[in-house]
Amino acid sequence: MTKTRLWLVLTAVVVVAVLAGGWFLLVSPKRAEANDLRAQTLSTEQQVTALRGKLADLKEKQANLPAQQAALDAISKQIPSDPALPALIRALTIAGRNSGVDLTDIAPAAPTALAPVPGAAGTTAATPINVISLVVSAKGNYTQVQQFVSRLEGLQRAFLVKGFQLGAVAAATGTGSGTGGGELQLTVTGEVFTSAATAAAATTAGATSGAGAN
Predict the structure, then answer these.
(1) Cβ distance 144 to 99 under 8 Å?
(2) Do 193 and 130 contact (CB within 8 A), yes or no?
(3) Inter-residue contact 106 to 74 (CB < 8 Å)
(4) Among 132, 130, 109, CA closest to 206
(5) CA–CA distance from 19 to each of 10, 12, 15, 34, 129 (Å)?
(6) Which residue, 214, 202, 177, is CA-closest to 112?
(7) Residue 143 Cα to chain centre, angstroms
(8) DSSP assigned state of 154
(9) pTM to 2 decimals?
């Protein structure tokens, strides 16, 4: 091998070594760094997409908050967190007045826990609802009594009519509230509810006597 050819070979070897060294020292690390950056970018984009989805979900829920709050408010009026007997008595009195009956007695019992709900595998789940049994007495003619019962079931507060008794009132004891169609004595048994267990007991029989006398 001539000296010139030897120099060419050595130069080629040096160039290859320099290129290889540059690759391992400069290009390869940068390429790995670029791959890492691409992976990080992809992960970030995925996180941003997930966050955008959550944000859209939150905006949708926020838009529905007024409707949900209105529904909760309606439920809280139907099933308040305490017996709220004064408000109930006022509502019953108004229902009696608007129906034309003489509301003669409102007799609530003490709140008791609603019976547990049967669950899976024979288990039972406690309910956060108390029930107040109620007896309401009124006098009026047939039309007035019928309207009163309908108004009971249409009260803003949930009132469950469990049963009622209806009988004629003797003419000698009539109060004149009827309109000539014969006066009737109505006794309604029902239930109202509270959404929390309260230690306060409702006033028992005779809580309001003659509450709705017109």
Answers:
(1) yes
(2) yes
(3) no
(4) 109
(5) 14, 10, 6, 20, 81
(6) 202
(7) 37
(8) T
(9) 0.53
125 phi and psi angles, rounded to 5 deg: -115, 130
Helices (H), the chain: 3-22, 28-78, 85-99, 142-153
- Identify the burial level of 92 via C-beta atoms within 10 angstroms of its C-beta, where 0-12 means exposed, 13-18 middle and 19 or more buried: buried
DSSP state of 121: G
Place of tokens 């029989």: 205
**pLDDT tens string 84-133:** 899 999 999 999 999 999 999 999 999 888 877 665 555 555 568 889 99
Both tokens of 169, joined, read: 């009132």
Residue 41, number of CB atoms within 10 A of its CB: 10
| Residue type at position 144 | Q
Q: What is the pLDDT of residues 183-199, one digit of tens each?
A: 999 999 999 988 764 43
pLDDT digits (tens, 9 = 90+) for 9-42: 667 666 666 566 665 666 566 666 677 777 888 8
Structure tokens at 134: 């109620």
Nearest CA-CA partner of 184 in 107, 109, 106, 99: 99
